[in-house]
């Protein structure tokens, strides 16, 4: 029975990885999860300099999920290279670094620093606000998406995954823009913009007013968008958004995802990733399916 999948020439031992921002760089979870069992670890966003993130409160529970306005707090590329990457390289898993920035130049500085690093792939978070374009996120503008993809590809030594925002009218437009820019793969979806108000205090629950909605509540939207993009582009797709069980993961794979990423589930079940891997293996065995790849995009 084969659980391995291929993304842009990189072979993952199974299709399950972590979602950026929910697993740190693996240190917090190493006591609960054998990182070597995972197909890949996707790091928290890495910027060219330390980012303090947004003011608190910046996390709130919602029905079927959570809102976060962390603001991509991270210690920056120097600390990542000195501390986090050596830790990850101890394990037999692929390392995918999520890159964030507020301008094209910020993204490119991180990509260039990673060129000689022992990293398997880069995931470019284009849900960041473009400060030079008045704060509009890179991923909501297909012209900006294609441009930054092309510029990153010129400098990247590793395959490039563009992480798409769902906060657009038609996500296939963004997917095609990333593909046209030379992306090796795309990942979707990032969080949906949401809001929560405390009716007792008549105030916003999050200091930022809005935050990113994640968790099971967004899964049907994510599956639909993965399916749409699978019909629109030829490059591999990493599906994420509300995955908590093997059945959830298999939905994304049947919709067209080559691999899946587990995010919010890590917060309430630190072993979610390995349980999903085991569940997928059980499904293949029970249904006498020899190769996970035969399920990719099987629903038309």
What value does the average pLDDT take? 95
Percent of residues in β-strands = 15-25%
- Poorly predicted tracts of residues: none
- The largest beta-sheet arranges its strands as 3-16-15-10-9-8-7-4
The CATH level-2 architecture is identified as Alpha-Beta Barrel
Using only C-alpha atoms, the radius of gyration works out to 18 Å
N/C terminus separation: 24 Å
The global form is: globular
Short description:
With 300 residues, the protein is α/β, with parallel strands linked by helices. The protein is built from eight helices and 16 strands.
Structure description:
It is a single chain. The chain contains 8 helices and 16 strands. Helix 2 (104-113) runs parallel beside helix 3 (142-155), helix 3 packs parallel to helix 4 and helix 6 crosses helix 8 (272-286). The relative contact order is 0.17. The protein is α/β, with parallel strands linked by helices. It is globular, with a radius of gyration of 18 Å. It starts with a strand and ends in a 14-residue tail after the last helix. The chain has a single domain (5-54, 70-193, 213-295), classed as TIM Barrel, CATH 3.20.20. The strands form 4 sheets. It has an 8-stranded parallel beta sheet with strand order 3-16-15-10-9-8-7-4. The chain has helices at 77-88, 104-113, 142-155, 171-180, 219-232, 246-255, 265-268, 272-286; strands spanning 5-7, 10-12, 16-18, 40-42, 59-62, 65-68, 94-99, 121-125, 160-163, 185-188, 192-195, 197-198, 203-204, 210-214, 237-240, 259-262. The model has no long low-confidence stretch (mean pLDDT 95).
